[in-house]
Amino acid sequence: VQLQASGGGLVQTGGSLKLSCAASGSIFSINAMAWYRQAPGRERELVAHLRSGGSTEYADSVKGRFTISRGNGWNALYLQMNSLKPEDTARYYCHAQGIVDSWKYWGQGTLVTVSS
């Protein structure tokens, strides 16, 4: 599975961005997808998670502001980010989990910068 994230950029506090992740390859093997982020000097953290049944999970810091969704099947994953804050500044990574636990895939990341 190959993942290509896009949509990052520079936005002012309170603004919005929509990230996209295009998945290709053996997408039939995907069981769940997620967005993670990593700010400079910090560990990578889970932002939002979407399972095949449609259930979602969000980090407390983004609840009510971010929405994870997908296209037809697992060919695309999205993250709508509203009311952005400077602390949302990070590189955002797309992640896919296969039906086998060891099948984990990462995209290259897209940079989001929120100016104060």
Question: Approximately how much helix is present in the residues?
Answer: under 10%
Series of H and E elements: EEEEEEEEEEE
Radius of gyration from the CA trace?
Answer: 13 Å
How can the largest sheet be summarized? 7 strands, mixed
Shape: globular
Number of strands: 11
Classify the secondary structure makeup into a structural class: mainly beta
Strand content: over 45%
> If you average the pLDDT, what whole number results?
96
Whole-Å distance between the termini?
37 Å
Uncertain runs are none
Query: Helix count?
Result: 0
Tag the structure with descriptive keywords.
mainly beta, seven-stranded mixed β-sheet, globular
Describe the structure.
The chain has 116 residues and is mainly beta. It is built from no helices and eleven strands. The chain has strands at residues 2-6, 9-12, 17-24, 30-38, 45-51, 56-58, 66-70, 76-81, 90-98, 104-106, 110-115. The strands form two sheets. Strands 2, 4, 5, 6, 9, 10 and 11 form a seven-stranded mixed beta sheet that branches. The chain has a four-stranded antiparallel beta sheet with strand order 1-3-8-7, with no helix packed on it. The N and C termini lie far apart (37 Å). The mean pLDDT is 96.
